[in-house]
Amino acid sequence: MKHEANKLALFLKEKRSLSGLSQKDVATKLGYSTSQFISNWERGISQPPIHTLRTLAQMYSVTAEQMFNVLLENTIVQIQADLKK
């Protein structure tokens, strides 16, 4: 179940890698002083703020719709997991 719950994390990491960007590159473009935020997103520890998703989609050359669909799927899986607890 944990693997599924990190669908967004896996998506973000894969798309960043395919874009040829480092975590530091992404952090700098988003105005963060450290790449820790990006690392946390990619490990499923936290999620990017909603307003950041559109910028990430542009940086990673994916549509905003793709990005939001992955976020939605991820959220549904997490809620289902929480309900089973």
Key terms for this structure?
single chain, 85 residues
Question: How would you describe the overall organization of this protein?
Answer:
The protein is mainly alpha-helical. The protein is built from six helices and no strands. It is globular and about 40 Å long.
In summary, what is this structure?
The protein is mostly helical.
- Total beta strands: 0
Could you give the distance between the termini? 12 Å
What is the N-to-C order of secondary-structure elements (H for helix, E for strand)?
HHHHHH
Structural class comes to: mainly alpha
What is the tally of helical segments? 6
Strand content: under 5%
List the helices and strands and how they pair.
Elements: H1 2-5, H2 7-18, H3 23-30, H4 36-42, H5 50-59, H6 64-84
Helix pairs in contact: 3-4, 5-6
